[in-house]
Please model this.
Amino acid sequence: MAKLRNSSGRAVAGRGSTIETEDDIRAGMRALRRQCSALRRVHDVTGDPPLRRRPAGLEGLARIVVGQQLSIASAAAIWSRLEVAVAPLGAGTLLAASDEVLRRAGLSTPKIRTLRNIASAAAAGELVVESLGSLRDEAVHEQLTCIPGIGPWTADIFIMFCLGRRDAFAAGDLALQVAADGALGLGYRPGAAELTELAERWRPWRGVAARLLWAYYPILKQRRSGAPL
Model:
């Protein structure tokens, strides 16, 4: 779908270019089943993947940082404590909270530093998270990765789940790489660059393909470990 342009001439997501509902997931899966026999086989095993949408503002970005390299349960527990310790959660309250308060919520020193960097940029007007939805994926990626502590993975996840861009893809994600190996029968885990190339076949629904592969990842792990499904 062609991109719309705002008054500044910047390309923004057009109608139908985001994943908003379960119906969008189903539409993406219908297209992917036609495009890729490997994903068709995976879908037969997993069923439709979950929607997995998050708030698009500073809260959504902070939640991604909090959940990095943690299980879903651990991330949820830390986030719940953080919401109580820093309420209402925003740039000002994050900057005002002491390191000790943030550590008691369960945050590591690097994550505290990253959250403070985000809050500082937001407070200074250097980052307006709420306006990122008006930018193309590449511009969002560039703005976010300018902030110390935010790498490509965090930016990709924000674009996928907070902005809901249907063709976004996190090629550097370990679970996606492992699941792609299993789905495509590669015999090895592809790196980010190779997975980016492999995922070209799934455009313009790479965001749904990623959700499907994430749903497949625990099933694949169980199969490889020999544990009963």
Observations:
- The chain has two domains: 19-52+168-221, 58-162.
